[in-house]
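Example record

Each entry pairs one chain with its bound ligand, zinc ion.
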Amino acid sequence: MSITREGKLCSFCGNRGGPGTDLALLGGLGAQICQVCVDDFHEILHDEDLQIASRATVPWETMSDAEVLATLPMILSSAEQNAAFAQEWVHLLRARGVSWAQIGRALGVTRQAAWARFAKKSGDVSATA
Ligand SMILES: [Zn+2]
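Structure tokens for the complex follow.
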């Protein structure tokens, strides 16, 4: 299994992008951002008036209940995408021979807790080493 941006969604607008689409994605730590959002944020960051306006309010304060409800599934999809990314990284570490004890230490949990959280989903249930 390789880690890819294929089929991923922008963590900011919820649009799907990546390889095979017209929407380029960049990302890190599980979050992805599309070119449209990069351009929008770039404009805000380089325009003092837009920065002041963006700091004055947060989008959800002016959203209707219907808009908040419509956004909720996208928030969950983004959270699930991030959880899947963490799973992919654990799989990568295991493929490199990193032990469950090392993974647990990195996460601040026991080896057993790391194994219980990630092993079943990755199919790596054979060993707790
Ligand atoms: Zn976007």
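The first strand starts at residue 25 and ends at 28.
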